[in-house]
Q: What sequence folds into this?
């Protein structure tokens, strides 16, 4: 990934998507106070709403995108994907879902994260973009591939043309999970090899969200997948982490726009 600075803000961009306007923002450069900030994009975190609004203005300015056309969803850890054409007047979200797809220029797609996986998809041939939010529940439900399939079904995208980016999320050395998660991973992927590691001492399980989401996309035909490999839980100086900060934190944002 490329690390970009804009005034006090810092964000990351996938090297494999050089012609797509997008950014995964860190927690740096915002207007929010501790423990949410400085750059908190979570409107339901308990932060000052005016500070959150200012933070959105700053990220849209940094990317030179139209904030008045920005679209988001009420994220519910599902695998539901919606096709987006424009924001809904008087409402901050277009639907309860965890994936968005659009072919409309000047229509930024925005999602928020604090350990879950940002999955960004771009078809440079058909000019279609998609974004998904995938924690463990979304991952084993196929949130990323639901967004991928919507691009194929609705806009005729060829999966071989699509570029995918797996953004910063809690890493495989930090994401301890219970046995119900292990069973769900095995059911979805048919194996836990390369996805679940056991602690050599007590045998507890750790899930590799990065590899799980990348593998799901690859087995559905995506040939170009870039993995950020940045752990939010061990990089709280740059990213919000719900687990590492015990829930007392904000949310960072991923934004993409044609």
A:
């Amino acid at each position: 990934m490329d690390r970009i600075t804009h005034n006090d803000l810092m964000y990351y961009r996938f090297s494999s998507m050089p012609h797509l306007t997008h950014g995964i923002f860190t927690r740096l450069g915002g207007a929010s106070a501790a423990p949410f900030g400085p750059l908190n994009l979570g409107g339901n975190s308990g932060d000052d709403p005016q500070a959150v609004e200012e933070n959105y203005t700053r990220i849209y300015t940094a990317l030179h995108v139209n904030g008045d056309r920005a679209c988001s969803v009420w994220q519910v850890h599902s695998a539901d994907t919606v096709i987006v054409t424009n924001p809904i007047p008087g409402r901050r979200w277009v639907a309860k879902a965890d994936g968005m797809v659009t072919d409309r220029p000047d229509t930024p797609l925005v999602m928020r994260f604090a350990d879950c996986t940002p999955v960004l998809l771009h078809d440079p041939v058909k000019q279609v973009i998609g974004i998904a939010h995938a924690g463990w529940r979304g991952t084993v439900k196929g949130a990323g591939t639901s967004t991928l399939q919507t691009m194929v079904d609705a806009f005729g995208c060829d999966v071989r043309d699509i570029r995918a980016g797996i953004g910063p999320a809690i890493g495989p050395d930090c994401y301890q999970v219970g046995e119900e998660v292990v069973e769900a991973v095995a059911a979805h992927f048919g194996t836990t090899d390369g996805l679940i590691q056991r602690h050599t001492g007590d045998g507890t399980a750790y899930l590799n969200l990065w590899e799980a989401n990348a593998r799901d996309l690859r087995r559905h035909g995506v040939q170009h997948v870039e993995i950020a490999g940045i752990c939010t839980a061990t990089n709280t100086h740059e990213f919000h982490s719900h687990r590492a900060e015990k829930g007392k934190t904000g949310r960072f944002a991923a934004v993409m726009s044609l």
About this structure: The CA atoms of residues 11 and 25 lie 4 Å apart. The helical segments are 49-63, 136-141, 143-155, 179-189, 209-219. The chain has five helices and 14 strands. The mean pLDDT is 97.
